[in-house]
Amino acid sequence: MTDLSDLPGETCEPARARRSGGRQARVALRAAPLADDVKPVRAGLPGGQYKPLTEAGIQQIHSAALDALEQIGLSQAPPSGVKLLTEAGAILGDDGRIRFPRALVEDMLAIAARNITLYARDPKHDLHLTGTNVHYGTAGAAVHIVDPVTLEYRDSTAQDLYDAARLVDNLDNIHFYQRTMVCRDVADNREMDLNTLYGSLAGTVKHVGTSFSDPSHVADCFELIHMVAGGEEKWLERPFVSNSNCFVVPPMKFAEESCITMEDCIRRGMPMLLLSAGQAGATAPAPIALAIVQAVAECLAGVVYVNAIKPGAPAIFGTWPFVSDLRTGAMSGGSAEQALLTAGCAQMHRFYDLPGGAASGISDSKLPDMQAGWEQGITNALAGLAGLNMCYEAVGMHASLLGFCLESLVLGDDLLGQTMRLVRGIDVTPDSTSIEAMKEVCLGGPGHYLGSDQTLKLMQTEYIYPKVGNRMSPKEWNEAGKPLLLDAAIARKNAILAKAGCRVDPEIDAAIRKRFNIYFK
After folding, report:
1. Which residues, 6+ apart, have CB-to-CB distance to 476 below 8 Å?
2. Tens digits of per-residue pLDDT, 328-359?
């Protein structure tokens, strides 16, 4: 990671501890850097404290999903998929729908990959998807960039995607980078896929997720991946890119081209995000529970498909149902119902003991404002507390996924730090409940804990501090010129981008630019 120790918000954090009477300020400084094992928050903290579904409810959803697969099935599988699935034991009906006997689903669940690792190019950013370990990152396909100063929306570009990846590379609480926007300045779809992939890899050494708009583009993209990895063998040792694959078109239809892409990517060693993205009240049933049933059924069909291609291939159970505002039919990604859907899906992932991912953090607001704050805060907090392994679209997304804001990445890093602190919970140990510190303070001591050894020690390891969030008193804020939160986010964004360079070796970068038409600088 670029050395950003002198950037705004990255220097020692003040903890304004006042002596009694409040007249003289004492400032304690955070030691930097902290070792990963003592940081207040870090990637992969276990969640699972929040459970909106009862055990009986989980069983009902599971049973209904199996009924749906057995009685309704999925249509429109490509010929290659029909062959794979029927040879595995699925049944092709006269109506063209493929139905899945319960025994087949259970057999494939038994051999499905569990406790997988999504590798990063830098091993310290590897994502261990086991149990209720929580990771936050980006995703989406926004077609606009939001300018929070001019309040304008403009077409997103390859440069914007690259800049977003560079920001993520330097923001501690955003753990992976999946394609955030469409490179609308790249007219050719093949070149767009290549620029999406390379813009992500050039911007960050964290795990990358990408998409392919056509199966014919996969080979060229893997050529690029192998160039970055240093060869196919090195890629296969540590596959650092996953494919976000919308293999179904809800309700209960396979997406033919995406399925062909999935087959190719799995055979080339790429981890798969099996993404079912129905919209409750539109392409998924309106009841929250039944929307989860459909998403689970579709992803269980994906589990059968993946393991029919390659038993034990790494795949993420991507139940990703969205919500409609039933008054208009428009998507409402920042709603309380969305938070419940995502948390319920996380419980189903745990029921199957499969690595899982879903949407969290989407805002319906057009700008990084108070509405965006409450929407992103609620949905991300519930997703993490439910133990969702991969929280996608957690930061940056506005206008129900139509707009992406770079400043929101910076603000979102603060928000996710607070969310991960919720996920970590309260440490109850003999040391943290010992009354010795109380005795020292109360029995002849100073009457406060501001300067105690315990306080100064725990400010490093138990408390997290915002990088751009403002905790000044009104007097301090007034004396500082009344700084605005957005101004701090813009300053931090600009400081990071001024220093963050390409994360691919210069010789490899030059070779890639010679081989492919790369649009960003």
Report:
1. none
2. 988 999 999 999 999 999 999 999 999 999 99
